[in-house]
């Protein structure tokens, strides 16, 4: 079951400048940063609020690290802005399977590694009324204490 907005993914050209904007304008602080080579991004997670399923909602600021990455391609076409939304679930495998059975294309056969050792998959935007949609299962809290 999908129980929270886990994050909103925002594509940007310059991660530091965008982080600075969110800090100066809203007072949001960086909770976590990492490079995800497989996804071709450098990212900053800004934690906005806790959620009643025990998780949290974040903004995920994304800067491409490779010209052939999906985010680089998207920035070239659209410029900066909202790139995707992500729903949180306790069981990404079960939810992705159930959604696939409804005829929505799930992009990965098996969930891959996402931010903070989460497990993620994506739904094709053309099957979701134009919204690239991610499903996320967070790592157990103990797995993220060293980040
Ligand atoms: N939101 C909405 N529509 C999008 C989109 C997005 N983010 N990205 C692409 N599209 C649309 C395009 O506008 C295009 O539509 P038109 O044909 O009508 O112009 C269509 O999808 C195909 O676009 P494309 O540029 O040819 O893109 P690709 O097919 O190469 O890739 C997608 C699209 C969804 C398969 C690819 O972006 C993908 O695999 N995404 C999942 C991985 C990802 O986004 N990783 C970065 C974030 C990592 C993280 O969150 O941790
Ligand atoms: Co994301």
TrEMBL record:
Q: Does the keyword Disulfide bond apply?
A: no
Record EC number: 5.1.99.1
- Which SUPFAM superfamilies does the entry link to? Glyoxalase/Bleomycin resistance protein/Dihydroxybiphenyl dioxygenase
Keyword annotations for this protein, in alphabetical order, are:
Isomerase, Metal-binding
The reply to whether Protein biosynthesis figures as a keyword in the UniProt entry is: no
Q: Which GO terms describe its molecular function?
A: metal ion binding; methylmalonyl-CoA epimerase activity
- VOC domain residues are 4-138
The UniProt entry's GO biological process terms, in alphabetical order, are: L-methylmalonyl-CoA metabolic process
Pfam families listed in its UniProt record: Glyoxalase_4
EC main group: isomerase
Q: Please state which protein family the record places this protein in.
A: Belongs to the methylmalonyl-CoA epimerase family.
Name this polypeptide is given: Methylmalonyl-CoA epimerase
Please give the organism: Streptomyces daliensis
The gene is: mce
């Amino acid at each position: 079951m999908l129980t929270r907005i886990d994050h909103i993914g925002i594509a940007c050209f310059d991660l530091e400048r965008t982080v600075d904007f969110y800090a100066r304008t809203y007072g949001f602080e960086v909770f976590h940063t990492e490079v995800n080579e497989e996804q071709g991004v450098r990212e900053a997670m800004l934690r906005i609020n806790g959620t009643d399923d025990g998780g949290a909602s974040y903004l995920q600021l994304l800067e491409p690290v490779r010209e052939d990455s999906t985010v680089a391609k998207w920035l070239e076409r659209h410029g900066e802005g909202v790139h995707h939304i992500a729903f949180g679930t306790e069981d990404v495998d079960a939810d992705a399977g159930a959604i696939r059975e409804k005829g929505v294309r799930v992009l990965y056969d098996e969930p891959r590694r996402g931010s903070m050792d989460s497990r993620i998959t994506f739904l094709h935007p053309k099957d979701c009324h134009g919204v690239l949609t991610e499903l996320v299962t967070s790592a157990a809290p103990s797995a993220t204490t060293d980040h």
